[in-house]
Design a protein that fits this description.
This protein is of the alpha/beta class. It contains 17 helices and 19 strands. The strands form 5 sheets. An 8-stranded mixed beta sheet has the order 15-14-13-11-10-9-6-16. A 4-stranded mixed beta sheet has the order 8-7-18-17. A hairpin with a 6-residue loop joins β7 and β8. α3 packs across α8 and α4 runs parallel beside α5. The longest helix has 22 residues. The protein is globular, with a radius of gyration of 25 Å.
Length: about 500
């Protein structure tokens, strides 16, 4: 028999207001944000940045009314502050079909696959082979089939086509094999305008509902290399939103101390921001850091836990400025999808997910970022699923506290058939789409499969079954005709 609650129960409860209990992670105080900002301003005013593109350098000299010394520009703080005021706070991002997908700068953390890998790691054998057009097709379709990946970044450098046309073929396979948003990395700066021309020929105006975000890296310390400067100017003048992100190796290209690396990298980002706003005030740009360490004994770069802290600090600085943030993905570590890689991906996805948000666009690479691993793409999709569930917290209100059910069950009762259980038992706890909740007895009956075997089988099935977009054939044919007309230029 159900027991009714006394009439006085809940008499002194506060008003019932829905509220999510969400975890939050903070690193810098307001005073420390001002301190880091001051460090960056001092670096840019006293040390400056070198701009290696003669055309962009002359343009900037004209805008600033100052001559560079040995191609080094020193940027006054007031110019930087102006750039911070004019840069948009939010970048709306669409898919290729024109549907709004997310708002970078005003959304939760979003993820993407890609890395510009030179090699492909086979999901069955772990062997590595040179990256090809077929690998690009398969990886783009794989990322497109997994819902937690909102963007596809340039996955690899295609090596079975003429070198002069590598970027064109790679970019064509990207746009033809997904309708998702694209983060575009073009290694040959001379081909960058041609890639944009091809995309405009295939799609139309890229700036109206942008689904393509070109990605640029300066060279630490404090060099805006010629390719980056020229590509940045082309993209900004065409009205495209861009990502400007620096890659550091602490102890080599940046100081070994996290504070020194943070100050230097932030100065580089503010320089890129300022250049973009001098080219076109109001140009949409997202900033971020990829802070790794350099091991002098092995000559390898790697993520340290403090790399994750620097990424968090950057996220907080971008939130402080009100700018969209594109940060670290935790990629490149391990020898495939192994325990080493899992550690770094978990740490990065969980900690980054507890910030305001942003974009982590480079999931999937391994072996020092030289190879792309489809196993990693599939397993990290699982990590993202759980990290988001953690970051979302839980609902804390009268309805979810189910005090009446607790009272009705009473001491020694159960909740197997209570309304809240029956309503939520399929969604109330995490059930992996990849790894089943098996008892020991079931695992033995299934012949003791290793989790790695389950992952391999699932990945191979996804690679086999992930479809191409409906317009794949048309885009591919028109894109190949465009490349043929260009020849080797």
């Amino acid at each position: 028999m159900s027991r009714r609650a006394p009439t006085q129960r809940g008499r002194h409860r506060p008003p019932a207001e829905p509220h999510n209990a969400r975890p939050r992670l903070t690193l810098l105080s307001e005073a420390q944000k001002a301190q880091v900002h001051g460090y960056a301003l001092r670096i840019l005013a006293e040390t400056g940045v070198r701009v290696d593109s003669p055309g962009v350098l002359r343009f900037l000299e004209g805008k600033l009314g100052a001559r560079a010394a040995a191609d080094v520009l020193r940027l006054p703080s007031e110019v930087i502050e102006d750039a911070l005021r004019t840069a948009p706070k939010v970048i709306p991002v669409y898919d290729r079909l024109g549907n709004p997908i997310f708002r970078l700068g005003d959304d939760r953390l979003r993820f993407g696959i890609g890395v510009t890998a030179l090699f492909y790691q086979d999901p069955l054998t772990d062997d590595v082979t040179p990256f090809t057009r077929r690998h690009m097709q398969d990886m783009v379709r794989l990322g497109s089939a997994l819902p937690h990946y909102d963007v596809i970044s340039t996955v690899g450098i295609v090596q079975d086509v003429p070198v002069a046309q590598t970027d064109l073929y790679a970019s064509l396979e990207m746009i033809a094999n997904t309708t998702k948003s694209l983060v575009l990395l073009v290694s040959d700066e001379t081909q960058f305008p041609a890639v944009l021309d091809m995309y405009e020929m295939l799609h139309g105006d890229l700036a109206a509902r942008p689904f393509v975000l070109p990605y640029f890296n300066p060279v630490s310390p404090l060099v805006v290399n010629e390719g980056t400067a020229d590509k940045l100017k082309v993209a900004v003048e065409r009205g495209l939103p861009v990502i400007y992100s620096n890659y550091s190796m602490a102890g080599a290209s940046t100081p070994l101390t996290p504070a020194g690396t943070l100050a230097l990298l932030l100065a580089e980002l503010l320089a890129g921001l300022t250049i973009s706003q001098l080219i076109r005030p109001g140009a949409p740009i997202s900033l971020g850091m990829l802070p790794v360490y350099f091991d002098m004994k092995t000559m390898m770069n790697f993520y340290d836990p403090q790399s994750v802290l620097i990424n968090l600090a950057c996220a907080e600085m971008m939130a402080h400025y009100g700018l969209p943030h594109t940060g670290t993905s935790g990629s490149g570590t391990g020898w495939g999808m192994d325990l080493i890689a899992a550690d770094t991906y978990w740490l990065n996805a969980l900690s980054f997910g507890l910030t305001k948000g942003g974009l982590a666009p480079f999931i999937g690479d391994t072996l020092g970022s030289k190879a792309i691993s489809p196993l990693t793409i599939v397993h990290v999709h699982e990590i993202i699923d759980q990290a988001r569930r953690f970051a979302d917290g839980f609902q804390l209100d009268d309805a979810h506290a189910v005090l009446d059910e607790i009272h009705d069950a009473g001491p020694g009762g159960h909740f197997l058939t209570t309304p809240s259980t029956l309503e939520r038992y399929k969604t109330g706890y995490y059930t992996s789409p990849l790894y089943p909740h098996w008892s020991m007895e079931t695992w033995l009956l299934e012949q003791q499969p290793a989790a790695q075997r389950v992952l391999r089988d699932r990945t191979v099935a996804l690679l086999r079954d992930s479809p191409a977009p409906d317009d794949h054939g048309d885009l591919l044919a028109r894109g190949l005709a465009f490349i043929d007309r260009r020849g080797g230029t």
